[in-house]
Amino acid sequence: MTKLPSLRESILQHLRYSFGKDPEHAILEDWRMAVSYAVRDRITDAWINATHRTYDTGAKRVYYLSMEFLIGRLLEDGIVNLELVDEARAVLAEFGKDYQAVLADEPDAALGNGGLGRLAACFLESLSTLGCPAHGYGIRYEHGLFRQSFVDGRQVEMPEHWLEQRHAWEFERPEVRYRVGFGGHVDTRGETVRWYPAEEVEAEAFDTPVVGWKGRWANTLRLWSGRAIHPFDLDRFNHGDYAGAAQPEALARTISRVLYPDDTTEQGKELRLKQEYFLTCAALRDILRRFNNQFGDLRKLPAKVAIQLNDTHPAIAGPELVRVLHDERGLPFDDALEIAQGCLSYTNHTLLPEALEAWDESLFGRLLPRHIQLIDRIDATHAARNPSRQQSMRADHQVKMGQLSFVMAHKVNGVSALHTDLMKSTVFSELHRLHPDRIVNQTNGVTPRRWLLGCNPRLASLITESIGEAWVDDLDQLTRLEPNVQDAAWLDRYAQVKRDNKVDLANWMARHHGVHVDPDMLFDVQIKRLHEYKRQHLNILETIALWSEIRDNPEAGWTPRLKLFAGKAAPGYFFAKDIIRLINDAAAVINADPVTAPYLKVAFLPNYNVSLAERLVPAADLSEQISTAGKEASGTGNMKFALNGAPTVGTLDGANVEIREHVGAENFFLFGMTAEEVMERRHVDGHAWRAIEADPRLRRALDLIRDGRFSPQDPGRYHGITGNLEGPDYFLVCSDFTDYWRAQREVDAAFADRSRWSRMAAWNTARSGWFSSDRTIRGYMADIWNAQSLIGA
Ligand code: H2P
């Protein structure tokens, strides 16, 4: 291996020879790129070594197929994992450059919608930290999730262009290209079946190395970009049709142009299905090419290849793998099926019916005519082997991707204990009865490198000073902080860290958003995708009720509170967009009220993304995890907050249940109905109305909204919301309101006692070690993939 020059020298060399600048003339972006390249060089060594070890040992490889990788910025991740923070900071300071400004210059790669995509990114980092040979496969969207801004309080979506600024991390692989076909016809001659697609595009690979802790290992994130097979039509050009000449390329590129703006909306169905097949087909070709070069014998595939389907989005991998093995490689159908099942496993991330993919069979059959035949054969085989089976992969003229994924996988997992139980008793109850060993639980986790060491350096130093640095890749060590939590002097330092983080955030909000807040207020934070089940509207209702109450009685000793929101609503999800607008409208009125100003402020920060989360999580006092029980599969934001010392106010939903078990009931503000009670309450006639009648605070908050108190120019603006809450209220906002109010007043009282609060917060940190994604990945390696770590092997 080549010996690299010092970081300082590397940076200056890149500035000069990669970007043609000297330090005097380099702009911020040049510095950011030069530092990134210097860090990337160091990652690249680890990466190439890891690849060699994987080949040399013939180890099993893990392939994580995901339509989303919400990786965010990568420079800080690299610097932190290679332990170069002090050095990088010093070099930049020497040239008068601000380290934070250099980091913030990097575009935030928003190739995902929310938790599902962020989980995939945390998993890649943990796979590298653990030295498990792995590849992430995804799509290189030119435009990630839209940029959000507010106009008159309304969400406005603008395209996101992360690739427009220079991007330091990817290596283009023009030699790695595969053809992906759509449509056409199937030709059957006896046992020989061939699919002749009508349309073909090419998938080209772009690789990003993902480095683990201390640079011991690095894996690959391989993203596919669409291109035309014949990018330019010279004939049309020569006939003067210049636009037409460029058309093949434009069409092919559409496939990787934009991230689907939600995992639940209805639009763009055909393009979405094409994207799913595009990713899956290219990934499987790549996997098989690598396997062939190394091992050859296809029967060994399950021993050497584990393919994880991140939700049903890449579920077409099942029939595609069978198609390649059977139609193209000539294995008997039953053998192809068995081999595919041996390789594949599937993670379910939600029980929401609208998110369980089901494709119109005519669309599906038109785009993937051979796959629909194979799905029928897989379905028939499964039915024949399980005569008591009633549900099929084909029902209501649709192809059910959940059923398909389950049948094609040797393991199916949920993402929290409660969610896994609900999978067994609801959506997959029949398949679970037929295959009682298939469903396993792997509770989600988050990487402590990004979500503590990187984003909260003050807390990280205090922890390291107290228990040493072993916690960074062995997060269970945090329990060793327990004696410190009893120590008043240590707790003061813990509290000071939080306060300093809050001051930073307050200054940043003042500078960038003109929001002025007192850092001694309770920072109450709800940040996540907008969705009715996540119940941002429950939070704003409570805020409005609190505002009214403070106005009635300003001298009652209120605990000053800042309600912070951030999150995007899917562009077609109008109800969610109305909730955003309501929060902004209410914020304008509440923040302008001099009577309540010392006690209550509301802010909705625009354009929520990974970087904003990194800023908010370390500064939060209270974590809002208030979904209707049974609806939030796990949550991962909940874990980030607990780890960073923000107790939760939450329902018994998703991983909240396990967080409460770990941090202790006394350090968690529980409220609301259980998943079981929710199911029963839905059947109670007029449940919303009863709840409203019983609680004058709720009544008043709803009246204020309905009567246009927050939208005087347009009093009817929120009748959609109030009508829904007073009527069907499917997500039981009204029924949980009273108990939520009670829990929030407990929060007020607890926060008013500062030493009690610090103790609660510190307990949350000390007891959150189990929520490391290293623990989760170890679980997948042992229970699902049968994969081994190669570090130290
Ligand atoms: C989803 C679930 C979360 C879960 C996450 C990762 C789809 O993410 O709803 O409960 O933690 O997957 O498993 P999100 O809602 O954040 O987009």
From TrEMBL:
One of its GO terms (cellular component) is cytoplasm. The modification N6-(pyridoxal phosphate)lysine is found at residue 640. One of its GO terms (molecular function) is glycogen phosphorylase activity. It is an enzyme of class 2 (transferase). Its EC number is 2.4.1.1. GO terms for biological process: glycogen catabolic process. It catalyses: [(1->4)-alpha-D-glucosyl](n) + phosphate = [(1->4)-alpha-D-glucosyl](n-1) + alpha-D-glucose 1-phosphate. Keywords: Allosteric enzyme, Carbohydrate metabolism, Cytoplasm, Glycosyltransferase, Pyridoxal phosphate, Transferase. Pfam families: Phosphorylase (PF00343). PANTHER family: GLYCOGEN PHOSPHORYLASE, GLYCOGEN PHOSPHORYLASE, LIVER FORM. Belongs to the glycogen phosphorylase family. Phosphorylase is an important allosteric enzyme in carbohydrate metabolism. Enzymes from different sources differ in their regulatory mechanisms and in their natural substrates. However, all known phosphorylases share catalytic and structural properties. This is Alpha-1,4 glucan phosphorylase. It comes from Salipiger marinus. The lineage of its organism: Bacteria, Pseudomonadati, Pseudomonadota, Alphaproteobacteria, Rhodobacterales.
